[in-house]
Amino acid sequence: MAAQRLFVWKFGGTSLAGTDRLRAVAERLVAAHRAGHQLVVVLSAMGGSTDELNAMAYSVSGRPQLRELDALLSVGENISCALAAMAVQDAGARAVSLTGPQAGILTDGAHGNARLREVRPERIRQELATGAIVLVTGYQGISPAGDVTTLGRGGSDASAVAIAAGLGLHECEIFTDVPAVFTADPRVVPGARPLAAISRDEMLQLAAAGASVLQPRAVELAAAHDVDVHVRSSFTNEPGTWLQEGAVFESFEITGIAHRDREALYTVTGASPATIMAALAERGAPAGAIVRNGSEIHLTAPGVEEPEVLEAVSATGAQIVLLDELGSVSLVGTGIGRRPDTMARALQALEAEDIEPLLVTSTPSRVTFHVMRRAVDRAVRRLHTTFGLHQAAAVALALDRAARSVS
Amino acid sequence: MAAQRLFVWKFGGTSLAGTDRLRAVAERLVAAHRAGHQLVVVLSAMGGSTDELNAMAYSVSGRPQLRELDALLSVGENISCALAAMAVQDAGARAVSLTGPQAGILTDGAHGNARLREVRPERIRQELATGAIVLVTGYQGISPAGDVTTLGRGGSDASAVAIAAGLGLHECEIFTDVPAVFTADPRVVPGARPLAAISRDEMLQLAAAGASVLQPRAVELAAAHDVDVHVRSSFTNEPGTWLQEGAVFESFEITGIAHRDREALYTVTGASPATIMAALAERGAPAGAIVRNGSEIHLTAPGVEEPEVLEAVSATGAQIVLLDELGSVSLVGTGIGRRPDTMARALQALEAEDIEPLLVTSTPSRVTFHVMRRAVDRAVRRLHTTFGLHQAAAVALALDRAARSVS
């Protein structure tokens, strides 16, 4: 057995949906606690409950104030933490639930999408010292004014990484409803392989391109504080994917393929890229890509609702047109954006499938092709084969790492 | 129009059940705010939600820890306050929701039934100064350890009175689903009359005897801090009943009649009254009456679950037997317990109905008769007639008071 350690674990909403799953999580915690480990466990709201609370808000107000929306939505995590504490106690271990404010998660005052400023884990340490499993509400923090803030959708991943960093740890495990990060979406590519390890940059690129296993913000935090993140299944004891520096496989050109079934492409005239960027940033809606083409600017804003983009850009006085029949396919791998051969092979492969990309954008570690929506799945499968992603890779580093985790 | 004032209002769960009612409350608040008044509004959880949360707790744990139960149950008030703030904002006024901890409601650490220690309303005053309607979660406080506590069922009434006192006010209005305090339950006695005013002691006695319009604790707090409480309908603008000192009608022997359809009577042998009292008090379950009869002790514990009483008393090594076919009828009026004529008239009236009380207990302002359950309603009606409660009373004092409230 491994030495006794302090772990930071995070469980998502689907892992907590319903009494049976909650109990299963509790039993996993108690087993690790019995083995002598200390546990800080970050929980999301139970599956669907945040959506329900959100619907309640919009049933009483057309435009709920963000401060009050935070006060309301944060309640979902309070519920799951208190219930989980009860379930753990029932399973025979000491447990205590802490809200984000109690756990010392300090944020700025940007309600609805607050930035983490600092974690002061005194209360967490205090409770750990009493022998309790400490359950912390994800997604929440406290503003300088003393109000509950939320970190934006999926913010619980960021909470977990921040708490690990605050406790001086260099690891954190995210238990989720998928067993690992795959070379492509297994629903689209039956031969897609789980990746034992992936670099943070690659994970960021996959997430930005539509593979929503882990919130990009959590990955950025992990990079900033040098925290390795283990993404794994909450339903099994199998190791998943380690997100870590050094997990770049030189033998592999492409780490994985991400896609979006629907990705709007906007065409803007009458404003500079800087103006557009500023207008979007003001609403917390970052542009995915901005490409200038003569007097026209092509713009993507993945993850942002279309009306929001249209409104933000129109407000600058610019004209904006939406092309909404597109999806996107992205190749992700460290350095691939700098290799002309990758781009050439990809374009040849797409051509062989009669798929013509309407927009190609590239960053150092990602190349994204906007294609017609009906062609997305075919493009993913073709590129997966072209770049040999079905083949097993050398995963020595990751296996070594995985063996150190509790299972 | 009355001068501009600071009001503390409280709305209960049935007043908040559903979007329409929530909006109606919001409109009432906005109207008073537009008239220039400052409002601190204490809210309960929306109808039924506390029961739902409680059921969730027991679905994951047979014996949930009180600290975690508080963390869970307090969520209901957070939801109603955040939603009400949104509804008020939507209706056109500034509003801010504050939790018990934010509002400065300090309690001891007795989770599940915390005692109020102090109200530090700095944040409330701050928010009032910005022109906002301040919505405060009822039922909640913060323990010295920094954890959310709850004040026990119905604790929102106590929150409202405590906040009024903390703000230096001598009035507080409780909006509820009944229009007033009546001389008897109108469902049992069709001729029952609403009381325009009632003394705090009488209200305490009515509450202790089963008339659950207002939590006894709120009444005690009102007495301790000299706060007059106006109990009124949240569905109309009619004045209800003022709870205040000086509201004792010398012309009236009896103020009202309360009853309980079911009230267990226990017979204990093998322990002293002091031991029994101590055993119950330890579990926060006060005895209603303890009557010694030779070596037997008769005991009532209204409002406490029977298994809890049986367990607490058995634990002392005493024998306890439960007689569970009883209900109770109580006459309430200042000083009636000291008047032999009242007792005599009541017993004659019951005899005329062929009702034989199995236990009679009296305090200075209440006389309680334990009778067979099937006889309770008849006893209430007969006593209501015997003591002339159908007749209109002099209510000048109360009307004067009611006219000062916003309506």
TrEMBL record, chains A, B:
InterPro entries the UniProt entry points to: AceGlu_kinase-like_sf (IPR036393), ACT-like_dom_sf (IPR045865), ACT_Aspartokinase (IPR054352), AKii-LysC-BS (IPR041740), Asp/Glu/Uridylate_kinase (IPR001048), Asp_kin_monofn (IPR005260), Asp_kinase (IPR001341), Aspartate_kinase_CS (IPR018042)
Short name of one Pfam family: AA_kinase
Catalytic activity, as annotated: L-aspartate + ATP = 4-phospho-L-aspartate + ADP
EC number: 2.7.2.4
Occurrences of domain Aspartokinase ACT (ranges): 329-387
This protein's UniProt keywords: Amino-acid biosynthesis, ATP-binding, Diaminopimelate biosynthesis, Kinase, Lysine biosynthesis, Nucleotide-binding, Transferase
Keyword Kinase found: yes
Biological or metabolic pathway of the protein: Amino-acid biosynthesis; L-threonine biosynthesis; L-threonine from L-aspartate: step 1/5; Amino-acid biosynthesis; L-lysine biosynthesis via DAP pathway; (S)-tetrahydrodipicolinate from L-aspartate: step 1/4; Amino-acid biosynthesis; L-methionine biosynthesis via de novo pathway; L-homoserine from L-aspartate: step 1/3
Catalytic class of the enzyme: transferase
Record carries keyword ATP-binding: yes
MF terms (GO), sorted A to Z: kinase activity
Domain Aspartate/glutamate/uridylate kinase intervals: 6-233
Source species, domain of life: Bacteria
Homology family: Belongs to the aspartokinase family.
Function as written in the Swiss-Prot or TrEMBL entry: Catalyzes the phosphorylation of the beta-carboxyl group of aspartic acid with ATP to yield 4-phospho-L-aspartate, which is involved in the branched biosynthetic pathway leading to the biosynthesis of amino acids lysine, threonine, isoleucine and methionine.
Protein name, UniProt field: Aspartokinase
